[in-house]
Design a protein that fits this description.
The chain is built from 9 helices and 15 strands. With 272 residues, the chain is of the alpha+beta class. The chain has a 6-stranded antiparallel β-sheet with strand order 1-3-4-13-8-11, with no helix packed on it. Strands 10-9-12 form a 3-stranded antiparallel β-sheet, with no helix packed on it. A two-stranded antiparallel ribbon has the order 2-5. The protein is elongated, with a radius of gyration of 24 Å.
Length: 272
Amino acid sequence: MKRIIFIAFFSILALHVMAQKKIVQTAGRDQLGQFAPEFAALNDDVLFGEVWSRTDKLNLRDRSLVTVTSLISQGITDSSLTFHLQSAKNNGITRSEIAEIITHIAFYAGWPKAWAAFRLAKDVWAEDTPGDDARAAFQRTMIFPVGEPNTAYAQYFTGNSYLAPLSQEQVKVSNVTFEPRCRNNWHIHHATRGGGQMLIGVAGRGWYQEEGKPAREILPGTVIHIPAGVKHWHGAAVDSWFAHLAFEVPGENPSNEWLEPVSDAQYDALGQ
């Protein structure tokens, strides 16, 4: 019993030490140490050494979010914002998240401030995205447009996707583009009669899988018929952008049921 208490005590102590690990910052002394040593000490030892280091009260990701929001709201878009954007990236804020964060800030702090912040954020997150170049290069491989970021359904996707509605008459058709590794959640198309979905591969390489069945590779020209009531997912391969046309099959009382994400383990098990 004493052994268990002893181990538990030191486990808690270890977690507490990890939570209280101080951030080491030298920018103040490096840039202002001789000119304003007191200010430099407050910057390095108090702001970062104490306030930023209180991760047991607010984690680094959230502190980055608060700091970036504060700086942009004040119109501060110099090297200090660049530093904190880089910190935000290091603390786990993704490219798509910072884009949404700055977009949200724009409505409260002002459009010009958001534009200025976006210019810096694009550079900070540039290496995360083969970016516009990769998207533009993929666009040249197909006749249908890549479209705009699929923000309306982003919560049902792992990774970044793009949506280009092509037709809303007779049959609803959209071109859906997936960045490498992007896939949608498991989902089911419901209908009391008819319904379902049809996919046609347009460019790149992707996957389609029904629950309990092996995954099927989708290449340009591949046609996938998905009856109503079938649990499934589809998305890009590990090393390829991918696009397919999605046809909404007419039916009575159609609806979509979004389910759990396709885990990395399930996805990686495909072997690609």
